Fold this protein.
Amino acid sequence: MHNRTAAPSAAPAPTDSAAHDGHRLSARKFALHFAEMVVAMAVGMVVLHPVWMYVLGAAALMHNPYTGALIMATNMTVAMSAWMRFRGHRWRPIAEMGAAMYLPFLVLFVPLALELIDGGALMLWGHLLMLPAMAAAMLLRPHEYAHC
């Protein structure tokens, strides 16, 4: 009878703190980038709103819920896109993130037209739904956002 030794089993995944810290740092960078984009969007709303109101004389457009929402999304998209380009992002992820700014409003235009919601709800829910839409766009390309 031969005394066989069992074949070595696969080594467990490394659990050293360096590998764990690297993953955590990547997640931290991902979250930081998300926060940076939200700040850029807020800056866009504050800085570009007076341009529409006073320079372009579009106050009537701003008071219409449909055009007001699209102008607001544009203000946020312009600033966020500029920030993303500054941070070295490619155009495709910038376009995807821009779509995340408009999509919630476009979806909410249906209940607005059916008078199920009013203009205030459109703005509130449009802004709130942007956050998961942005996260979804980021999760499509996590490597794009975790390196920043």
User: Anything to note?
Assistant: The radius of gyration is 23 Å. Helices lie at 17-55, 59-63, 65-86, 91-113, 119-140, 142-146.
